[in-house]
Structure formats: C-alpha cells, structure tokens
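Methods — Computational structure assignment.
A single polypeptide chain was analysed. Its primary sequence is given first, followed by the predicted tertiary structure written as structure tokens.
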Amino acid sequence: MLSTILNSFKVAEIRKKLAFTAALLALYRLGSFIPVPGVNLSALKQIENNYAGSNILGFLNLFTGGGLSRLALFALGIMPYITASIILQLLTVVSPSLEKLSKEGEVGQAKITQYTRYLTVGLAAAQAVGYVFLFRSQGNRAGAPVIDNFTAGSVVLIVVCLTAGCVLLMWFGELITQRGIGNGISLMIFASIVSRLPQGVQAWWTNPDQVFKVIMPFLALGVIAAIVFVQEGQRRIPVQYAKRVIGRRMSGGGQTYLPLRVNMAGVIPVIFAASIMAFPPTIGELLPGAKGISTFFTPNGWAYIVGETVFIVLFTYFYTAVTFNPVDQADNLKKYGGFIPGVRPGRPTAEFLDRILARLTFPGALYLAAVAALPTILINQTSANFYFGGTSILIVIGVALDTMKQLEAQLMMRNYEGFLK
C-alpha cells in the first residue's frame, strides 16, 4: 500500500488528481468551521454537549465532521444528496418512465442525476428549516438564544446559506468523482469521520477502565483485519474461451476466471441504511411533540439496530442486483466465445451466475449488518465507550480500500508496457 502511494506521486497526472481531491476535501473541512450569519457563537458553545453524545444529533454531527454543532455552512453535510439518491433509485424500480430513462445509457443517467439534484435542493431546504427551529428551541432551554434576531429575514438567510452549502458539497463530490481519485461523496463522509479521530483517541486514553484501554488497540486491529479479509474475499468462477480460426490464424482460447466478490455492494448499503434510519429520530428532534420517536430510535437502541440491520440486508441485495446483471454477463461470455465448464451458454449460464450470486450476497449482507451492529451491542452490554460505531468503521475502511484500488488501476494504466519498447 505504501509503495502504491509513493509511486502515485511519481506520475504527474495522478499527482494532479490527488492534489485536486485534497484541495476540495480541505475546502469541505474549512466550510465546516465557518458559521452561518446571525449566529451567537457563545450560545452554540453552551449547547455543544447535545451534539457529542450517542443520540441522533451526535450521530449526524459525526457524519458532518462537527459542522452541525457549529451550525456551519456545511452543517447539513452530504446526507440530503444521499437521501435523494436513495429515493430516485427506489423510484426507478417502481416508475416505468424512470426505469426507461435508466436504460437509455448516458443520456438517461444524466436526466436521473438532474432529478436527484432538484430533489436534493428541496430536502436540504426542508432540513435547514427544521434545524433552525431546533437550534432556537435548544438555545431557549439553555437560556442563551442561538440566533440573535429571530425574524423571517434571518431565518430565510440561514436556510439559504445551509441549502447553498449542501448544493456546493454535492458539486464538490461530483467534481472529485470526475476529475479526482475515488468516489467524491464517499470521500467526504470519510473525511468527516476521520476528522473526529482525535476526539476518539482522547476518549480512549481518558477511559477509566484500564482493561479496556489495553484491549482496545488489539480489538481495533482485529476488526480492521477481519473487515479487509471479507471485503477482499471473492469467488472465482472459471471461464474457458474457445479457439477461433480467423483467416489462416487461430486465435483465442485459454482459461481465466470471473471474480464475484463476497460483498459486491461495498459500503453503499451501510451509508444508505444509516441515512434512512437517521430520518425518524431527526423528525423526532425537530417536532416538539414527537420526542418519543427520537428516544425510541436512538442510535444505541435496539429498534435502531434492528432497523439498520434490515435495511443493510435489503440494500445489499438491491445494490448488488443493480451493479451485476447475470443475464448481461452470460450474453457477453457467449458473444466472445466464453463459457463456464459444465454449464451451457446462454440462459443456463445466467441462472448459474444468479444462483452463485445469491449464495454470496447473503453472507456478505450478514457481515455488513454484524459489523455495523456489534460495537453498539458491546457498548450496551458493557461500560466501554468505543466512540466510533460499526457504521463509521465500515465506511472508513471500505472507502479507503476502494480509493486504493482506483489508485492502483490508475497506476496500472500509465505504467503498462507494450510488446515494443
């Protein structure tokens, strides 16, 4: 891994992409420290503890890198865009017109992306209004108003700033994906979680339980090793290519394999599940009479754990079906003269791949759900405080692995040597 990172700085084009990605991530972190206009900073300090615990506000604050507790320009983070993406992907399955658009190639995908952006603006504006009234109520309970002049003009100004910040982050994410290295949206969530690492280290070091202080580093290394092992695990399907006679020459032939990963969906199901499960308790915090919903769906509660587990399993199957189509794979193998030994080409091959994929996806989904829920269960059963939940650990490791693979692919493309030197 270190050699890959060092070699990437030797290639000028990759070096520019890395610098571009780092610059946008730095701007993202800078915007998380700039408060919106009309905010009382001393009052924000007094209610800061509300966003440092294990409640839903602390969870959302982790995903925004501390921007929510500061009511910064990027206080909404990228979560409205993720929610909009989930809604559009689910509507694509239900709506015939959207399904038709998704099959029209780049033009259709561009149209769906445009709809996602419009929906993101609406969700961000609604969430911004809710946060403004939430901070006002918390400031009133603390005895210091968070918003100095709570008028219609000041509310509109803050909502516009927060919505514009979310749209700017959406643009940053798309720019990183197009011109940088890695998936921009995932990298921004990665940066938000990693930025809270010093607080996590401090919480571990100041923990009064000496046994936990000694065991925690080994436990963390074990979890990281287990996640990497399962993430990189794959089932290799042997593929044989028939020899073909073209003119006077015989070409083709040989044997290769089709790699099917145990977890083909990556960390996307975890991000989607966290985004959906954050919705009910957020509504509970925003509405005065719905405080019981927030308490019932607290991130450390059993209702939240069960709901997140169910959504992770569902989204793992859904996203795997979206990214890997057995029928298309079988048609491509047949088109290029390839076949799986012992399986007839065409429809039998598609059914074989579908059966193998279903068997792989189930343990992959259970693995994601187990890693996401295990730290929370341990926190509930013991007095240990892990600071970072399983969802955060999965996202950090998964995004790091995917980014390293893209970096290696970029290096391989530029260091390939042909037959003629």
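Note: The CA atoms of residues 73 and 161 lie 6 Å apart.
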